[in-house]
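It is worth pausing here to work through a concrete case rather than discussing structure prediction in the abstract. The textbook approach is simple: state the sequence, then state the predicted structure, then interpret. We follow exactly that order.
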Amino acid sequence: MLDHVFISASDVDRSIDFYTAALAPLGITTRVDYDGKEGPPGHPDLKGFGEHGRIFFWLRHGVVDSRAVHVGFVADSVAAVDAAYAAAIAAGATANGPPSYRDYYDPRYYAAGVLDPDGYSLEFTYKNWQH
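Step two, the predicted structure:
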């Protein structure tokens, strides 16, 4: 199980706005800012997102390589996938696979894909056998 992920953003404020909107339908609404000066030398400033007392998705300013990242976010229902996809598109994402069942993985795998403002691949997924 993963504890956290950092991704670099070319414009952190833009990415905060984007992820605040795109992740809200999934219940990922907790935001934390971490001042890198509080950590070891050279630690970056971080902008975190999470839920249920856990911050697990972090942004940091840096060089972007959109080919380097694909992040799948868990949704609690088909409706939550649809809502996250719509929110992400409204917040400036590029469509990268409309909401649908992904039978090539499993007939119960429902997902939608977008590219964030830096071109990172995001997927909102509902797998009913995992709930």
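Step three, interpretation. The chain has one domain: 5-130. The chain has a mean pLDDT of 96.
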